[in-house]
Prior knowledge:
This protein is an alpha+beta fold. The chain has helices at 22-27, 44-55, 124-127, 132-146, 196-211; strands at residues 62-67, 76-86, 89-105, 110-122, 151-163, 175-186, 233-234. It is elongated. Residues 13-34 and 218-235 have low confidence and may be disordered.
Amino acid sequence: MAAAQGRLSDGAGGMDDAKGTEEEARHKGSDHGSGGSGGSTAPPAFAAAVEALRAARLRPQIEVEATRAPQRLAPHAYALEAAVVDGDEDLADGRLVLLHEPAGHDAWHGTFRLVTLVRAELEPEMAADPLLPDVCWSWLTGALQARGLTYGEPSGTVTRASSHYFGGLSARPSASQIEIRASWTPREGLGGVPDTAAHLASWCDLLAQVAGLPPAAPGDASVVTLPQRRGPQSR
């Protein structure tokens, strides 16, 4: 799986980067294992939220697996990486991190936070569309709303990048990429546990839409989907 790599901003209270922050230092040494702190030392609400992520059933074109979580954004974290797969090619990939601060976080307005990075390659014509960032952000909020999810404090960025090759690399075609970095606070249900399985499903809907896959079920015909990129990335 071609996992999304890079810095993950939670958009409201920290950045997982090499320099670190006071918040990161305060949480250094927190319990983190494979995928995150979901073991016996984790609070019951966090353990239940993680178990729901592990048990979620997703559309077959999306491969999901646990990965090491950021260690300095919150006392407890669990991370997944995913790729939208077509044969031996990855059409899009991403990373989703569940953060938990049992005492609550002022910027989150809650005890849980979901942080994501999603990326895919684009047709150059699509990348040049001035409305693309707004459309991509609407894909995220629309995916959450389509599943009836309530959330708060959303924040994020949509970034377009283009690469042009010269000299010994001039034979390569120009490439464009879109990145969506976002975070939001999921509404907590019984026992203070958010519906993480539904949030994961909506995130996979976003991945599929960025990859250019058709909706898993009939939807609004007005929703714009991203055309599949010309040259899928080899796995």
